[in-house]
Write a structure and sequence with these properties.
By secondary structure, this protein is mainly α. It has a single domain (21-118), classed as Arc Repressor Mutant, subunit A (Orthogonal Bundle), CATH 1.10.10.10. 66% of the residues lie in helices and 12% in strands. It contains six helices and three strands, in the order H-H-H-E-H-H-E-E-H. It has helices at 9-18, 22-35, 38-49, 54-61, 65-77, 97-118, and strands at 52-53, 81-86, 89-94. A three-stranded antiparallel beta sheet has the order 1-3-2. A hairpin with a 2-residue loop joins strand 2 (81-86) and strand 3 (89-94). Helix 4 (54-61) packs across helix 5. The relative contact order is 0.10.
Length: 119
Amino acid sequence: MKTECCVNQENVDIVINELIPEDDIVDIAEIFKLLGDPSRMRIVAALRIKELCVGDIAALMEISLSGVSHQLRLLKRSRIVKTRREGKMMYYSLDDEHIVTLIDVALRHIKHEARDSQG
């Protein structure tokens, strides 16, 4: 038996006119892919609290300096983190408040889901 599909062309046209451009979709997906890795997410969560150097992050995460450096390179390339040099030391922080907002919204979302599943 064939199932018919209903298409509301008016709704389709509205969405087409307001849809996020494809290049932006790809960039957004890349950000979420990077943040989808637990190691990188732990680094971002730490940097949400305080600016840190590679050694600080390695100690917190209990991973090697080279492992932290690799993750930070990926995060920096996508402008999730930024650097600040002080003498020979390089410090990392979140690039801007938008990253903090992404994390805060995700936290509210999972807390909301947890609360809904209990009730």
